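User: Hi! I'm working on a homework problem where we have to compare a predicted structure to a textbook description. Could you give me the structure for the chain below?
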Amino acid sequence: MTDERLDCVVIGGGQAGLSAGYFLRRRGLTGRFAILDHAPKPGGAWQFRWPTLTLAGANHVHDLPGYGLTEALGVECDEWPAATAVPDYFERYEKRFELDVRRPVHVTAVRRRRGTTDEYEVLLTGPGPGDTRIDSTIITRTIVNATGTWDRPFIPYIPGTERFTGRQLHTHDYTGPHEFDGQRVLVVGAGISAVQLLMEIARTATDVTTYWCSRTRPVFTDVPFSPEEGREAVARVERRVRAGLPPTSVVSVTGLRTTPAIAAAQADGILEWLPMFTRIVADGVRFDGVREDAPAQLDVDVIFWCTGFRSALDHLAPLHLRAAGGGITMTGTLATVVADEPGVQLLGYGPSASTIGANRAGREAARHVRAVLDGESVRS
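Assistant: Happy to help. Predicted structure tokens:
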């Protein structure tokens, strides 16, 4: 790894980063960009998912442009573990399109290059001989950030959390249902991951007792999810980031659909919901003043936080991108361009935080990079 100069640096080797790489090649930028990935192998965050998650059970893994999942792996792959199937797919994709993905490389910071108005320095570290690390810098005119959220698990602060003598973990740390054998487990969260993992633990772990709570009561519906709902959900998130407000998850505004597995869990009493507790004590949680039918205290051995993730953007801190509203003000055709830094794009932030959104954002990111390099004005 030596200091070098490129026209574009893509940070992140997951779905959005590979999609951007594909379209950058289509825009004639082969050899003028690199994809930096801090994961040990291809697969993005998928390589870290729990082993019981199959492709069929995951939120839909959308095809990467130019080479589909079933084309790469075959039509019988639905029951394969996502943690091995998606990395296999991504690795085949990288080789097929000869993408310059460098790993494991950790980007420590991105900053404006001193004395210039249109260049950035990407500071990074990677493995050297033996156990050494080598620090280097890439100078680039554009940044496509596609780091996702997996490295930023979010756990809300609840008074007393430090007093709990049991175990606390996040979805990020889950390895399988049998780690909860013989325990009382409280699952916290209202998203699809919380529901799926609650059902898996309740049905698979041995001699386990499960409970479920969240800040808002989940609403299940039998009505199929329509394309119009999807577009409106994305539009709501897009309006927020264009206004400089923190994004909400696209998934969080689409609700939960009642699948046969969820209906069976409801019938079996697995999805009995409790409101959010007010504080944590040594041996459980308290529901002080929540509602009359809530228990005063619930004794548990494990608090399992299925409370989502935040965008992994710490390396961009030197650019001071945060707006007064707490988010980053976005512009561009798909709201992927940082308004105050048109050379910087954020894929997976806001409306592009889905596998199909990542593909559309990758195409637009390449178009925007080409426009910046050619000195064209930025479309809002």
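For your comparison, note the following. The radius of gyration is 22 Å. The chain is about 25% helix and 25% strand. Good luck with the assignment!
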